[in-house]
Structure prediction request, 313 residues.
Amino acid sequence: MSAKTRPHIRLISFILSLCLCVSLAGCGSSSSRSDTTGSSAASSGDSSHTSSEPKRVEKIVEEMAVDYGSYGSEAKDKIDTLLGELSACDASAGKRWKNIMDVWTSEDLGKQLNYDVLPDGLPDTDELCIVVLGFQLNPDGTMKDELVQRLTVALNSAKKYPKAYIACTGGGTASENESASEAGEMAKWLEQQGIDKKRIIIEDNSITTAQNAIFTYDILTSKYTSVKKLAIVSSDYHIATGELLFRAESILRASAPGNEKLEVVSNAAWKAPSGTLSAMFQAGALIELFGDVKTAFDIYYDNYDIHSLPPLK
Prediction:
């Protein structure tokens, strides 16, 4: 993780309260992501993605994300204008963020939801990785029912696709047990249900869903190179956000637009009795992926002043 992001990890006491409301992963501060320009792709060696005007690029990306998070489809014309400005600053960044905005604004994002188990027709090989998004642990380090329910969906899916890997994501969110991590407890549970330990991948350094995507990408592309396709498992209200962030991370990390190493191909969801994630929350998460953690957390905690940006018209 870059020096830019480390100070915000120290917000853990605040982050734990956020975890009560949304599905976030655990705490940690290590990552192979070393970009300093606010771009995931910088760590993949794509020099064309580094703009000569990084601050301008960051401002445009932030404005696009906040405009769509706030106004939805009403912001389309403004976003098109901003994408044109971004391409003029950095052609590669313009292409990447055009692809990301297309994903985010698509009516197909997070659909069709597949409840309880992955659908038929996915690769029955180690090309597939089932990514289970974590949920805050109880103070003593045990899992809450929502996380167990997500794992049950993952277990059903792992049995249906016995050659797929299962990635458990999330770090330490147990306020009274520093040794426990979401991913660690998830992995133990899956093993107890008969899943071969060799199939289980542990990502236990993240504190947000955006970091789930960042760190899981690091692990899969460096250590599990057979994996090409991802299936997201979470609560139903969280699937679209998970899909958006994992797809966006792969777009940002690609050597060039269109050369993404990982593809989100499906999902399996637990039908939660309640829970929502707003488009503005998704805006914050995309900004976090880009590298501006401070602005992302201002959005998460409703401290971001939308009026600091130009109006739509």
Confidence is low (pLDDT under 50) at residues 1-51. Residues 54-71 form the longest helix (18 residues).
